[in-house]
Amino acid sequence: MEIRHVDAVLTRPGRNYVLVRVETADGLVGWGDATLNGREKAVEAALDHHVAPELEGRDATRVEDVWQYLFRGTYWRGGPVLNSALSGVDMALWDLKGKAAGAPVYDLLGGRTREYATAYTHCGDDDVDAIVANCEAAAERGFDHVRVNVGDPAGEYLNLDRVIDGVGEVRERLGPAPELIVDIHGRATPREARRVATGLESADLYFLEDPLRPENRDAFERLRAATTAPLAMGELFTNPWEMRPLIEDELVDFLRVDLSHVGGITAARKLAAVAEHHYVETAFHGPPDLSPVGQAASVHVDLAVPNFGVQEFTDHAAVYGAPIDDVFSGGATLEESVGGLDVPDEPGLGIDVDREAALSYEYERSHLPTVRREDGSVADW
């Protein structure tokens, strides 16, 4: 199954996405997601100028070999831009492999280990009353896991007291259910991370997400020793080997990698296998800046791996409206009776992209806000 053409499709059906389209000589098309929020043009350039020319003429069924070639076969490896490009190609090749075999991707990964993937949704707000109302509405849709970030104004530095007091009040008002998740987004210093983790222990979190930046392994060891709060990490990792010490030393409870950044389905399934041996569960990243293609890929892995924990879910059509339905068809769907996600029992990823519709929604330059402390100095975003 020879690769005839690879191209990046940059689209904005509500927000910017970088999609990867791989076409074979016999006319099959596979889709992947290479979106890197705020750096979409860099990924597009990497795909069009560096990745695509190297893939045309290669065998699309040799998914592992292509992955190794794109990662190891270049002196400059890894990093968010190149690994996002690699991730999108990898998803597209798995999509093609499933279509050629007439099987959904989860079957190629060993088959289902569950009927659905339990999902969590975002219920955060600046106001505790609003968060409680959001959680109650989420419960009516079947969600028993919710993210409850308290106040997160763009450009404002992390307010530890607001987080600790606000989440504590949310737990007190909601009672023992639902499961609560809090995302620090890597904005805390090691000292701040210890304070917020210990301060939230009484809220009985399902997990505390990204309490630290990924480069500080020793800080994770100190944080682990300081708190009983379950810890989740991974969305900022763009190289699967970066997660190794956190998994092997059992410094985290949940693997939070993003399939569009860490190396696609190939990397995610390997990381999940390593994590299983250390009783670490998966909780793949699934924000609005992950396209429906990336979300579908995540759910296929969720359904196949035995150590699945929970899947972050974005209802793209509800957030962005009709443009999403113009561009994407199929993909992951929420079964509200169980608060879980499933994908169509169709060959490949079970999602299609209307290329012409995608191109009609033109890219618009955007970037993440900058966070500054009270004294004006730049802080981690």
Automatic annotation (TrEMBL):
One GO MF term on file is: magnesium ion binding
Task: Quote the InterPro entries the UniProt record gives.
Answer: DgoD-like, Enolase-like_C_sf, Enolase-like_N, Enolase_C-like, Mandel_Rmase/mucon_lact_enz_CS, Mandelate_racemase_C, Mandelate_racemase_N_dom
Q: Which PROSITE patterns match?
A: MR_MLE_1, MR_MLE_2
For the Mandelate racemase/muconate lactonizing enzyme C-terminal domain, which residue ranges apply? 128-230
Segments passing through the bilayer: none
- List the SMART domains hit by this protein, alphabetically: MR_MLE
Q: Which GO terms describe its biological process?
A: amino acid catabolic process
- Sorted alphabetically, which Gene3D superfamilies does this protein's record hold? Enolase-like C-terminal domain, Enolase-like, N-terminal domain
Which domain of life, per UniProt?
A: Archaea
The protein here is known as Bifunctional D-altronate/D-mannonate dehydratase
What species was this sequence derived from?
Halosimplex carlsbadense 2-9-1
